[in-house]
Amino acid sequence: MRGDLFRKLIARCLSIGLAVLAFLAAALTGATGWGLALAVAALGAAAVERRIRPGADTAAETTLIAAAVLVAYARRLDGGFDPALALTALAVLGLVLLVGPLRQAGGLEIRTANLPVRSWATLVATHLGDALLGLLAVVALAAAAPLPPLVALVAAVLVAAAAGAVGSDLARRRFRPRASGGAVRRALQARKPEFVLYFSAPPGSEYQVTMWLPYLERIGRPFLVVLREPEFLAPIAAATTAPVIYCPTLRALDEVLVPSLKVAFYVNHGAKNSHFIRFTQLTHVQLHHGDSDKAPSANPVSAIFDRIFVAGQAAIERYARVGVDIPAEKFVVVGRPQVESIEVRAERLPVGTARTVLYTPTWTGHHADADYCSLPVAEPLLRRLLDRGVTVILRAHPYTTQNPASARQLGRLTELLAADRTRTGRQHLWGTAASRDLSLVECVNRSDALISDVSGVISDYLYSGKPFAVTDMGTDGDAFTERFPLATAGYVLRRDMANLDEVLDQLLDTDPLSARRWETRRRYLGGFPAESYAEAFLEAARRELEPAGKAPAPRSAEADPVSATA
Question: 131-150: b or e for each residue (b if 16 or more CB lie within 10 Å)?
């Protein structure tokens, strides 16, 4: 986070500084060649800044660069007033003034992926700033040659004409929209999607959607994904063949609400969910992006949804435990389909077998009551694991680096793992190797035990049947397991690490809670048969799409063979 801020500051200083120097050299000195060279350098710096700071207001430096180039051009011609050059200057000035408003107007237009709709107006509006930098580069080259000013004028007129056409088209669509809707609506009507996955979240949250896409596709009905933040368009479109649509405004949401839609799925409690849940003709279903005993998992906002798909009975009890009163008929137990590929181990590993431990610290949360992060006290834990000859998979939460202190703590842990791998050859995994190259399921399957903070990872790991430890980072003491009942099936590691050796003995060797884990597994994840585990979700989702709109009843959660014999 700090490094990103530093890069943005450096880019800003370079583009502004070079633009000022270019203008001063061209306007106040006789060094016309140096002025043009500095102007070209400033153009390069401005282009880099636009990549680092998309959407940044660069009008000031662009004006200075344009002035430097045009003044240098006039001096190179040395022929007095030139009408073509004056018109070029007016066109460039107009473009400088238009870039910001057109970019903002283009940003309010629908953008799509995986849908045969292309909006050239939005594309040009978004990249008009780049086109202006390119135009100034052409004018600078014409000045350096020097070429007749008519060359620069023609280039400026072409760019200005494109900008004018874009502005006219955007204005028409804004103030005189077609009664039948635009191209996006017509394309969706042709596809007849039956449900929509609606998503709004902070940057870095695309995993909340990508974990559900394979199962939404397995429903076997056409659907689309609606996004409210543009940065998610590319990564989510790459993860599915379904149409993905970025809707920046409420009017854009009206555009995608085609008559064939019946159900809207949600994966979090984002504030912008209210923008879509207002469409009462749809059935609104909350899926969540994990199951845990965290406070956000029993958010009172869940009550606004028509259905709440939960992994097991424990999730229903969680709402009641914190006093959130939701009618029982809203809940549907569907299991946690993402665990279907987790390998289940019913037998205990022999004592003395080399162990691999998955450590998954969570982030600090948006509020103090949701801060379960163990990174501040993780170093002694990691050192003790390494002393015991354990191979460690360190998979941190995607939001970890948003907190500078957490980023430093995580960096220290990776240094310890790198040093131990060099010394012992044990193949510890961290960073991209653990978080991008491997999925969570692959990390679970590679490990023999889990150490985690309070998070949804524990519920997923519970399906494997393997032992886990959970960190108590609060001040609840003995009341910790009352707030977080899932911890009763694991080994609770205190914040001061006073019981660290005892917990590691139980986690890696004796495992006295094995039987309790299997009982808890059924309450938290349902007892659906392993060979058809995900069918519980798929059947419930299909029932919601039935024309009769029958309220789905939880599927009978019969004990699966492994849990019955464990």
Answer: bbbebbbbbbbbbbebbebe
